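BUG: 3D viewer hangs when loading the predicted structure for this chain

Environment: internal workstation, default settings.
Expected: structure renders.
Actual: progress bar stalls at 90%.

Input used:
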Amino acid sequence: MHFGVADYAAFNKARTVVIGGLNPDYPGDQWHYVISKIVTTARAFGLQAIDGPYTDIKNVDEYRRLCHRARLVGFDGKWVLHPLQVDVANEVFMPTQEQFDDARRLLDAYHHATHVERKGAVMHEGQMIDEASRKIAEQVVARGVAAGMVAEGAR
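C-alpha cells produced before the viewer hung:
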C-alpha cells in the first residue's frame, strides 16, 4: 500500500509546494494523519507500507529527511524516482550493522529467557525486554537479512 501524495493533495485541494514535500506555511506535518492511517491499514492487512514520491529530485537532503520521517512512522520504504535517491532510501530503511547485531543478541537473549528460564520478561543489556521487544527485533533482523546482512561474527 502506498501514499499517492499528489492524488491526495489534488483530491483534497491541499496546497503543496513540491509533490511529496511539506508546505513550509503549514504548522507541522500536513500529511501526518494520512500517512499514519496508511501504515496502520497496511499492517492490518499484512501489507507493506510505502511512502510516496518526492519530486524535487536534486534535493537529496530533504529526500533523506522525508525517508527518516516515513521510517519513524513505520513505512517499509519510500518511492525512488531517480538514481540519486536509491542510496538514500537503502541507507535509511535498512538497519546499520550495529542495529542488526543488537537485534540478533536481543532475540538470542529473549529465546533463552522464554525457553530455558521460562520467563516472559527479562533484563537484557540494561533494559527490560518482552514479546514486543522480540517482535521489533525480528523486524530489524528481517530487514537486515533482506539487505544481505550477516551477524558481525559470522563473516
